[in-house]
Amino acid sequence: MTRSNSVFCRQPASSVSMRAVGVFIVLNALLFLAKVTVGVRYNSLAVLSDAGNSLIDVLTSTIILFAVRETAKLPDAEHQFGHSRTEPLTAFTVAVLTCVLATQVFREAVGRLIDGGEPLAGVAPLVVLAVVIVTKSVIWQVAGRMGRKQRSPAMIAAAIDAKMDVLISLMAMVGVVGTDVGLLWLDGVAALFIAAWIAYTGFSLGKENIEKLLGAVPNPTIVRMIHAKLNLLKKQNRIRNFHELRIHYVGSEIHIAVHVNVSRQLGLQAVHDLDEDIQAILQNIPDVKHVALHIDPV
């Protein structure tokens, strides 16, 4: 008896998420304008590099807003397995834009160190960077909490991006402080560190989400949980064995296909009830949304 049950009832708190991302866009736009103004006024490459990062944030937050809206949609005739691929695709796009930014910052930093430059000392850059650090710390915590609660790769990407921004602004602050004490070369060095960190974060985020898009097997912890659930069913003599177990990502959701052997003495209703129970047990594992179960009487 073969039965497949698709459960796509995950409906993220889309209105809350979209409001949050909308606020992120406004904040990032304001931070970008502030950093560009101060960076140009004080000729600070570190601050201008941070401004470029804020511009990317505006773009990526807009993309994330689209992803949250799309993922909240129910399955339809054209997308019968839902829209879960939207979120890792969005996160991967964020990663690509991040790597592009890293390349630009690195080029500018090397140019500053080779050709020299005269960033100006002042309090304004420190004030702007302090505001950035506080604001991004709040976004980091809020987006991270929402991402974990809703199991949303796009919101988690926003949290990681905000965390990266805090560290980048701290590095930029080192460059600004260096300028204030006469170590002008620290401006370019800070920009180099910013470029390296941006590149590392972008690469890590991209690798994780491209694997999901390609249908990779989930992390070993999830796989062990699935095996443990099936082995417990064997121990309870509810099934005799299981085989041909396949586990993979479909977007941000995990799909399972498995064959289970049961006693041929079971009646049709008992087999049906067991089928329902097994699927419910497996779907209780984080991110598991679809179970294709093949029951073999032996």
Overview of this protein structure:
The protein has eight helices and four strands; from the N terminus they run E-H-H-H-H-H-H-H-E-E-H-E. By secondary structure, the chain is an alpha+beta fold. The protein folds into two domains: 2-213, Cation efflux protein transmembrane domain (Alpha-lytic protease prodomain-like), CATH 1.20.1510; 220-297, 2-Layer Sandwich (Alpha-Beta Plaits), CATH 3.30.70.1350. A four-stranded mixed sheet has the order 1-4-3-2. Helix 1 (14-42) packs antiparallel against helix 2 (45-71). The longest helix is centred in the middle third of the chain and has 30 residues, at 86-115.
Give the structural class: alpha+beta
Task: List the strand order in the largest sheet.
Answer: 1-4-3-2
SSE order, one letter for each helix or strand = EHHHHHHHEEHE
Task: Work out the helix count.
Answer: 8
Largest sheet: 4 strands, mixed
Total discrete domains: 2
CATH class (first level) name of the largest domain = Mainly Alpha
**Number of beta-strand segments:** 4
Strand content: 5-15%
Shape verdict: elongated
Bin the helical content.
55-70%
Provide the CATH architecture of the largest domain. Answer: Up-down Bundle
Say what the CATH topology of the largest domain is. Answer: Alpha-lytic protease prodomain-like
